[in-house]
Amino acid sequence: MVLVDDRQSSPTPGHPLGSLPFFDQGHRDLWPRIASFVADHIAPRAAAADAGDPNDAARGFAGALADAGWFEYLVPGRAGSTSKPDLTSVCLIRECLAGGSALADGLYAAHGLGAFPLLVAAPPALRDRWLGRVASGRAIAGFALTEPDAGSDVGAIRTTARPDGDDYVIDGEKTLISNAGIADYLIVFARTSDGDTATRRALSAFVVETDRPGCRVAREVPLLAPHAIADLRFENCRVPSASRLGSEGDGLAMALATLDFYRTSVGAAACGLAARALHEARERVLSRTQFGIRLADHQATRFALADMATELDAARLLVYRAAWRSAAGAARLAREASMAKLFATEAAQRIVDAAVQLHGGSGVSKGTVVERLYREVRALRIYEGTSEIQRLVIGRHVVEHGIVLP
């Protein structure tokens, strides 16, 4: 499997954008290491993971990622740290992981989402208890935000956390929660105010161990492409007040800050799927003959490959620009992150579809790589903010702030 280009100007394989100022030497060194790891430990398991139990596959991937130290990029400094991860490194890792297995990438992403609120808002006792274990893979994290009637509209969350002595009592339902069936703890967002659903300070965030009485998996959710995901139910689930992150009412801001940071990396995962699709398409058209010549020698084929390659490069540029802005200390990345996620996920859908088309009948045959990619790519346009939500964010920014003219 080829996940990197092999340019003669570079003695070792590097990321296609590696020569740009978005990357420092550490990033340039990171790419061949993660590419080699994925080729050896992730991609060979992808077909079996696609056909097997998602939770079992996710646990296997988690073990491999932990042993190789890749979780440490999500939790810099380990226990006691309050530093955010390096977003460019997270994007490089997710791009490569997704090209090998979207299930492995989904596990990694949810682990990061569950770690981020601890990094930025947990009291020292919670950081000391969990972050070292998260970094080493001894504990798996999750992020429980979405509900049956609260997806894009986070303010509509109905799960409640009622104060009772030194505890809170949590009741409610969560749906489509990644890592729910394998996580050791979840960041759970619940209503701690009786105010109107539009009240921004009605939500709070809690660290909830999954073995607490009253916290249970309601059902595993079979998706179009396998993913370690489930619905949750909380019934009289009692957690200590010390498990609250920040103050009461900080939950919405915390959720949005976490999604704002990780949204760019969804675009990176989309680039990984698209790059794998383009690679598979190129291999196919070089090896298949139609009407007496290789498919690669047909003008229509080259037009398709040209569009795929151009969209992939454009997507990568948007993704790594946003990550670079994060490293440069930008307080908010809403515009850049939304542009990166919107364009990269929509472009990846088109690129994977084109790869299926170039494969012909084998492209829709169960068990082929491009058939798996076709199922895996679809969810990226929905989770962590749908394409429609990203357009609203970008459009609002243009209206309120205008654009920079040459």
Write the layout of secondary structure elements.
Blueprint: H1 25-42, H2 46-51, H3 54-67, H4 87-100, H5 102-121, H6 124-136, E1 141-144, E2 160-164, E3 167-178, E4 185-191, E5 203-209, E6 215-220, E7 229-240, E8 244-245, H7 251-287, E9 289-290, E10 293-294, H8 299-327, H9 334-359, H10 369-377, H11 387-401
Parallel strand pairs: 1-4
Antiparallel strand pairs: 2-3, 3-7, 4-5, 5-8, 6-7, 9-10
Helix pairs in contact: 1-4, 3-5, 4-5, 4-7, 5-6, 5-7, 7-8, 7-9, 7-10, 8-9, 9-10, 9-11
Rg from C-alpha positions?
A: 21 Å
Spans where pLDDT lies below 50 across 5 or more residues: 1-12
Main sheet, how many strands, which sense, barrel? 4 strands, mixed
So, CATH architecture of the largest domain? Answer: Up-down Bundle
- Which structural class best describes the helix and strand composition? alpha+beta
The coarse silhouette is globular
CATH class of the largest domain: Mainly Alpha
Count of all domains:
3
